[in-house]
Task: structure prediction
Amino acid sequence: MLTWSDELVLDHPAMDATHEEFVALLAAAEAALAESPPVALASYATLIEHTRAHFGQEDRWMAESGFARENCHSFQHAQVLELMQEVDRLARELGDFGPMQRVLPELGHWFRVHAQSMDAALASHLDQIGHDPATGHIARPPAARPITGCGGKSCSAAPQPGETETA
Ligand SMILES: [Fe+2]
Ligand SMILES: [Fe+2]
Result:
């Protein structure tokens, strides 16, 4: 189970606060799954809602700080959210909690890499241009050309949909 630690801190207070909440909600969902299906569904729904806001916040920061609308970081957010929603659907509609059981630890592995690569690159970019996360104001505007990569040297892989396929 993923726990909050210094290695996940990116020195971006707003992003770090959201990430710490994500780690706690992920752990809560894993614990809930061990308890009972209704508790797991409620806990997983809370995790999805939080993740939607978490990714939306970073996508907004990218949009207002020089990233192209289509960029690999935002694309990965969309892929992961879609996967999480599909896992929710399988549990709700078919009562199949296998995919949820597999995807929760997988999300922990994915998040560690994502935070340390794409999110770290975004945090450093926002810091460099003097972006104010509350107002969107930019003290040192970036180059005019939109950024289509993740803004870092490496990209982390998203969890693969095959990992949650039902038998
Ligand atoms: Fe993030
Ligand atoms: Fe991100």
